[in-house]
């Protein structure tokens, strides 16, 4: 299965892509006689990639490692657009490298086994929460000034020595 990050195809052969999403919850069975759990939302999706890169393609391995270490103008890891059928099924559109990028020599195949993870950013849940926050900000009424502000303003108006 092929995977592209930021329009760049992941190199290698026998590429395997796994995707998952955690549906967070907590066990509340000790709080009563029912087997209940609390719903704590949908966490960002995770894509795990395993591929084999031939040792002759050392530059491809170096390019992958460079992409994993890339930083944006603010010093944060670069967020890439993900192109993959499985990621699309999970609705993972943007992700960044997360955790360890590991390469292991495979002597019998004269290749490196490369494993890395991509964690979703700007997930559907995050976008929904941002929209709710924006709506709440727009509909919020400004709070009245406090008495401390009134005292400070009167103090600033007084002329004195």
UniProtKB/TrEMBL annotation:
InterPro entries: HP1_YO34. Residues 132-155 have a biased composition (Polar residues). It comes from the Bacteria. Residues 127-161 are annotated as: Disordered. This is Uncharacterized protein. It comes from Pseudoalteromonas arctica. The lineage of its organism: Bacteria, Pseudomonadati, Pseudomonadota, Gammaproteobacteria, Alteromonadales.
